[in-house]
């Protein structure tokens, strides 16, 4: 078949060969009849090794198996395409009987390669499939950019949910979780407790040792809280030197025990300073168990009031909310 122009004729195989998109054509016997230059460059396999053979798989896979064009020649039975390209293919919206797929080829290039490939049937005048044409494009760069974007979105999502200094969840997340946990406690009639922890005399710590050392105390307290929380608990930085631990499935007695453990362990910590001095600090804790019908603001307010009560009792203690 020829195209004609003022300069003469161009054969179809020259057109294929000049196509910058890697292209393979096979006949009804699965024999390769075209393997263009772009395909040779992409796969590293010259056309001379492929034309007339049924070895097209060799350019892509370690073991013999059909490529997409082979499945098209075999009638493009969807279940068969699915066997080889599960979750990675869909029907072409442009050409009937054609498929598009995207897959990772670990042996391509230095670190593997993502290819987007399409295969369509070639039919005779009666509509019988007499071969298939497959095109392949390297979409690795696009994939890497998408992965980087996903990772950065995930990082931003994480940052928007956490407190930068301590790495604990932030107040916004606390309100979300609290609403959810109250709804759950209500629906299933389960206990739910919460504690508010407030660093004692923190202004004096800042004044005496400096703001950076104050930050160290907060970081240390956050680490201790994280070490003490159980699987279903979650911890939040609630304000400057205030923290919250949310305790699903926990009644007041257990919450008080946990609070007492955190208080005692924190009081025992000595943060060494350069001049052989050490910082020690204490916390006051208010514990509140959710009451049926109570909303999140009221629950937190009761725990806050218990913290004030603890401060009035001399600090470094735990008080159960009224
Ligand atoms: N280093 C540091 N200090 C903070 C941070 N956030 C808040 N603060 C300080 O925490 C101190 C809290 O002081 P107050 O609310 O007066 O409470 P307190 O000194 O702990 O006194 P009591 O609550 O009665 O024990 C303030 O001086 C704030 O500036 C922070 O992220 N880092």
UniProtKB/TrEMBL annotation:
Pfam families: GGDEF, PAS_4. Its EC number is 2.7.7.65. InterPro entries: Diguanylate_Cyclase, GGDEF_dom, Nucleotide_cyclase, PAS, PAS-assoc_C, PAS-like_dom_sf, PAS_4, Rev_trsase/Diguanyl_cyclase. One of its GO terms (molecular function) is diguanylate cyclase activity. Gene3D superfamilies: 3.30.70.270, PAS domain. Residues 99-151 form the PAC domain. It catalyses: 2 GTP = 3',3'-c-di-GMP + 2 diphosphate. Keywords: Nucleotidyltransferase, Transferase. Residues 8-80 form the PAS domain. Residues 190-322 form the GGDEF domain. SMART domains: GGDEF (SM00267), PAS (SM00091). This is diguanylate cyclase.
């Amino acid at each position: 078949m020829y195209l004609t122009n003022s300069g003469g004729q161009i054969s179809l195989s020259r057109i294929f060969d000049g196509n910058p998109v890697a292209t393979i054509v096979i006949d009804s016997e699965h024999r390769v009849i075209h393997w263009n230059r772009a395909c040779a460059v992409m796969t590293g396999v010259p056309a001379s090794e492929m034309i007339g053979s049924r070895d097209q798989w060799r350019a892509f896979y370690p073991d013999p198996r059909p490529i997409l064009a082979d499945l098209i020649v075999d009638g493009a039975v969807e279940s068969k395409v699915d066997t080889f390209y599960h979750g990675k293919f869909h029907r072409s919206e442009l050409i009937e009987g054609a498929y598009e797929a995207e897959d990772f080829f670990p042996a391509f290039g230095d670190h593997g390669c993502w290819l987007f490939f399409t295969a369509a049937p070639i039919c005779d005048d009666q509509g019988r499939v007499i071969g298939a044409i497959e095109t392949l494009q390297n979409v690795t760069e696009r994939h890497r950019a998408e992965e980087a974007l996903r990772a950065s979105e995930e990082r931003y999502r994480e940052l928007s949910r956490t407190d930068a200094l301590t790495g604990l969840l932030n107040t916004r997340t606390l309100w979300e979780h609290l609403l959810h946990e109250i709804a759950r406690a209500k629906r299933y009639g389960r206990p739910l407790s919460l504690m508010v922890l407030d660093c004692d005399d923190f202004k004096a710590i800042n004044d005496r040792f400096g703001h950076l050392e104050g930050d160290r105390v907060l970081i240390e307290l956050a680490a201790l809280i994280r070490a003490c929380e159980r699987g279903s608990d979650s911890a939040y930085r609630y304000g400057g030197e205030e923290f919250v631990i949310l305790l699903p499935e926990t009644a007041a007695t257990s919450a008080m025990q946990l609070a007492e453990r955190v208080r005692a362990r924190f009081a025992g910590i000595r943060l060494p300073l350069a001049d052989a001095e050490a910082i020690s600090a204490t916390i006051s804790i208010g514990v509140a168990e959710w009451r049926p019908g109570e909303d999140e603001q009221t629950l937190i307010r009761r725990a806050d009031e218990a913290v004030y009560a603890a401060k009035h009792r001399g600090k470094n203690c735990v008080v159960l909310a009224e």
